[in-house]
Write a structure and sequence with these properties.
InterPro entries: Gliding_Motility_GTPase, Gpn, P-loop_NTPase. The chain is α/β, with parallel strands linked by helices. It has five helices and nine strands; from the N terminus they run E-E-E-H-E-E-E-H-E-H-E-H-E-H. Helix 3 links the parallel strand 7 and strand 8.
Length: 199
């Protein structure tokens, strides 16, 4: 246990860090597992299975032809942003048939990241709709895949019909610092909303 020294020389236990839960959502093959793995300070829990011929009719792999596995329950990781602030990351499965898990994963979440791929932008509509309907704040993070076209933030916002208050950020789900910027955006957005309500 870490101890803090008070002004009078006595020691007292340091307060436990605040733990916050964030979801990472988006379409099939958009990079959710990669994002969680890039930033997690623990070995991430992954529930991936090989794609099979049986799933081929329901798993659209156009644009992600090299994808060989898929998340069937969730990804889980942890990152310490500050000594007193820890984020627990829960990556959701991307296919429709696993959406029954989302309500359970969303319970108690501070906010979410909706990961988007400009080659398959329509795949994130369902995640955007899910969080808007439930009033869960989210940041839209455009995963900049190699070779994918880059679009200005306002074009992405217009294509998805996002509210002006939803942050839109370009990121690389493979790079830790890029992912940290996305997560900080979600936390800052939520804290700003809570401050507005309190004020």
């Amino acid at each position: 246990m870490r101890l803090l020294r008070s002004d009078r020389g006595r020691t007292r236990p340091a307060p436990a860090p605040v733990a916050l839960k964030l979801l990472v959502a988006g379409g099939f093959g958009v990079g959710k597992t990669t994002l969680v793995g890039a930033v997690s300070e623990i070995r991430p829990l992954r529930t991936e299975e090989l794609l099979t011929e049986a799933g081929r009719p329901v798993d659209d792999t156009s644009g992600v032809e090299g994808k060989r596995t898929t998340t069937v329950a969730m990804d889980f990781g942890r990152i310490t942003l500050r000594e007193d602030l820890v984020l627990y990351l829960f990556g959701t499965p991307g296919q429709d048939r696993f959406w029954f898990l989302w309500d359970e994963l969303a319970r108690g979440a501070l906010g979410a990241v909706v990961l988007a791929d400009t080659r398959r932008l329509q795949d994130c509509f369902a995640a955007v709709d899910y969080f808007e309907r439930r009033g869960i704040p989210f940041t839209l993070a455009v995963n900049c895949f190699d070779g994918a076209a880059r679009y200005p933030e306002e074009d992405v916002r217009a294509a998805l019909d996002l509210d002006p208050g939803v942050p839109v950020i370009l990121c690389d789900a493979r790079e830790k610092e890029s992912v940290k910027g996305v997560l900080v955006s979600v936390v800052e957005q939520r804290f700003a909303e809570l401050a507005d309500r309190a004020g």
